[in-house]
């Protein structure tokens, strides 16, 4: 029996690796093909014909953003393995949703870097200056303190009088929450006036607010959430990322970057011995745990959540997705063809997750059955609102009229039938639901999330 289970595990690992590799190649080749087609179109286009790329592709013409503070910008924050504007050519992580409004920013953050590092990058992307990861943090995790330089901030006037709406997909939602806490705690050197009120609203789209059991299927160890299993999908990914960064092919990294430049892993600096050291797990982000996956385990998220608050003057809304249902008392995938091939195996596996009986429970009151519903990447219970270790104020929304007017300091949430990548990358896949979702998000930001009076003074504690 152990040999049989071992064979099944290796078969599953092989299939998962192939599916993920093919999907990655599909995204990359799609971006390259798009760029080439646009280059060819431009070369044969008459000079009098000045249609935009969006017009050619059938979308709405893009509007130039005027970020002068008259209208609060909406910032779309990508999730794990994601990318912002300027990466992967003309491909949009949010499937073109940013074209719906003339005041939208799509930052490019590290796709595999830790929640902490991405929150720091997001701050300097908006305010400008050189990314400062923090002296103490940088020493602990063994990387450079300073990173990319933004000569000009994308919204340099950002402050409590010019707040921002944030929309985060997957891990991006948790990045926003960490950034807000950093603003409240005034953690950015040289910016003593920051506060939580710099953020007007937070919208979480399939957000990783409480971690996910998928991390354990991908290769994180339940007994030690900072470490990976010796043979796993994440180990294969780790080797690929290290070699990619070590080779440091300029045009390739300009096209897509995992975000580990501050770890200085390229061959000119480390040499062959450095590469061996990285692959053996003696140095780099995977050795220190300063990357995204530990932050997405249940235990890692609980540790992070213990420092994060829901603030009384900020509006919160979340969309929790699921592709499972109950059938004869058993949780099963709700569709065969409706789930993306990249996620189907994980949907099935996550419905069967059982916390190891010989390990302490991750939190008081933990039950396996609470974590069965999922969207292939995150458990539905994780996406509704911050729950662990302290449950934050929340309200389930069945009809949108229930949250009009919106009240700040409460996590309004809806549960929708969709997998984890239904509302990103491929607009056609979501169809009319794509427009309904993003139109609803943008309308809420513009018409229902606003401040009419100074924030109340409340004790510095969890809500």
Automatic annotation (TrEMBL):
Q: Name one GO biological process term.
A: lipid metabolic process
Question: Does the UniProt entry include the keyword Transmembrane?
Answer: yes
**Molecular function as annotated in GO:** hydrolase activity
Magnesium recorded as keyword: no
Locate the transmembrane regions by residue number. Answer: 12-34
Q: InterPro entries, per this entry?
A: AB_hydrolase_fold, Lip-like_C
The places in or outside the cell where this protein is found are: Secreted
**Primary subcellular site in the record, as a coarse category:** secreted
Single GO cellular component term? extracellular region
Instruction: Give every Lipase-like C-terminal domain span.
Output: 72-188
Signal sequence extent: none
Keywords, comma-separated and alphabetical: Hydrolase, Lipid metabolism, Membrane, Secreted, Signal, Transmembrane, Transmembrane helix
Protein name as it appears in the record: Lipase-like C-terminal domain-containing protein
Phylogenetic placement of the source organism: Eukaryota, Viridiplantae, Streptophyta, Embryophyta, Tracheophyta
